[in-house]
Amino acid sequence: MTARLDFEEPLVELRRKIAEVEKKLAAHPDERLHLELAELRRDLEERQRQIYRALTPWQKLQVARHPDRPYTLDYVKYIFTDFVELHGDRSFADDPAIVGGPARLEGRPVMVLGHQKGRDTKEKVRRNFGMAHPEGFRKAQRLMRQAEKFGLPVISFVDTPAASPTLQDEERGQAWAIAESLLTMASLRVPVLVAVIGEGGSGGALALGVGDRILMLEHAVYSVASPEAAAAIVWKDHSFAPRAAEALKITAQDLLALGVIDRIVPEPPGGAHCNPALAAEYLKAALLEELAALSGTPGEALVEQRYQKFRRIGYVIE
């Protein structure tokens, strides 16, 4: 059963009625029941639209963290063909928190990479909840350099609470690995598309977030720190997290207005977790459009434009 968010309580009764009518239909097919079911589904979709149009930043964070939300490998399955996952950083180990490899996008060879969270407890632990170790970022760098060598566009999916913060990670060069990822992405002479598909948190997200075009799903978030961490730092109280979420400007709508991202990709009514296939369809269309716009641009021009793009972020005139 799909996990229910607090603000979705008004939808519970509608879903209950739909389940009852579906059960009756299965037992006794009837045209009136078909009409009633269609009407209930229309009501549910409209209520979902109304609720999701008015979400607060804190509520959007809950959607971005929804346990049924599509992850990188889900989008790979829906959007790409011929995906071959590659493993290891050729230095220390393989990190399941980051996945990647060559694939085809409508027949065009590309390099896909991204964070991968887990579904059940065992997988969450194995993938460290999508929080990459240094070897994960080094694996991503290896794939990026391969992409540049063979002229493949890079498509990066961002979805992580943060980089792994343990002492062992720091001892193995976590900060260095993140910095190297930023430098590698900034200097690639192939098109780079970034899609924030869920929770874009801290340096772990930034390490896969330097691109020619930055896309965000409608209910994704992207932030220098989690609202809970910001509340603990500023107010010394986790209960201020909703207020911190508002102040941090973490939503796609805020970040588009600030010029941090380039495009918002719509989600199905009720969020991407309600219809992953449709969410992937919307994202695929956006990726194809952005990739077509970048195709044919010389490598040196891509690097210069990417540099100027990030230099403009945060520039203000008083």
Q: Tell me the number of helical segments per DSSP (H or I, 4 or more residues long).
A: 14
Biggest sheet, open or closed, and with what strands and sense?
7 strands, mixed
Mean pLDDT across residues: 91
**CATH architectural type of the largest domain:** Alpha-Beta Complex
Residue stretches low in confidence (pLDDT < 50, at least 5 long) are none
Rg over alpha carbons: 21 Å
Structural class: alpha/beta
Global outline? globular
User: What pattern of helices and strands is seen along the backbone?
Assistant: HHHHEEHHEHHEHEEHHHEHH
Strand content: 5-15%
The amount of helix comes to: 40-55%
Write down the CATH class of the largest domain. Answer: Alpha Beta
CATH superfamily of the largest domain: 2-enoyl-CoA Hydratase, Chain A, domain 1
Count of β-strands: 7
Gap between N and C termini, in Å?
52 Å
Question: Which topology of the largest domain does CATH recognise?
Answer: 2-enoyl-CoA Hydratase, Chain A, domain 1
Total count of domains: 2
Question: How would you portray this structure in words?
Answer:
The chain is an alpha/beta fold and 318 residues long. The chain has two domains: 6-54; 61-312, 2-enoyl-CoA Hydratase, Chain A, domain 1. Helices cover 51% and strands 14% of the residues. The chain has helices at 9-27, 31-53, 57-64, 72-79, 121-126, 134-150, 167-171, 174-187, 202-206, 227-234, 241-248, 252-258, 276-294, 299-312, and strands spanning 98-105, 108-115, 154-160, 192-201, 213-217, 221-223, 263-265. Strands 1, 2, 3, 4, 5, 6 and 7 form a seven-stranded mixed β-sheet that branches. Helix 1 (9-27) runs antiparallel to helix 2 and helix 3 (57-64) crosses helix 11. It is globular, with a radius of gyration of 21 Å. The chain starts with 8 loop residues before the first helix and ends in a 6-residue tail after the last helix.
